[in-house]
Write a structure and sequence with these properties.
CATH topology of one domain: de novo design (two linked rop proteins)
Number of strands: 0
CATH superfamily of one domain: 23S rRNA-intervening sequence
Helix content: over 70%
Radius of gyration: 16 Å
Order of helices and strands: HHHHHH
CATH class of one domain: Mainly Alpha
Shape: globular
CATH architecture of one domain: Up-down Bundle
Structural class: mainly alpha
Largest sheet: none
Distance between the termini: 29 Å
Amino acid sequence: MAVEQYAEWVKNVSQEIKNDALWSIKAYRFSMYISDLAWDDARKLQKYPYMLGLINQLYRAVGSIGANIAEGYSRASGRERAKFYEYALGSAREARDWYYKGRHVLGNATFEHRMRILNEIIRLLITMISQQRGYREIREEHTNYE
């Protein structure tokens, strides 16, 4: 992730958002950041009429990441929090898929940058889910499809 870009973005986030305890959740901050990036990406993609469906799906998936983290954070039990963090995890993976499909228009540098952010969100969410469930860790199976 371009650290300078992210740091500049953080400076411009409303203090009202930063004052909420939710802001302390790194995955939430990154989800807000990628939501803003997705807005600009959607504007680039909209120049191509055949990308309109992708734009809708991409923007909904990216927006859903932070929304589910916020809803989960507000739940009373770890089990409930984990459920919403799992929804956020699914949305992060979906967003990654849509970015892959839009990479030809967005360009490789933009695509790789978005992948780094989404992969970090995914990594953080996996840890958060494990913590809320009381597990030591979630093991992701790696499948070789070649």
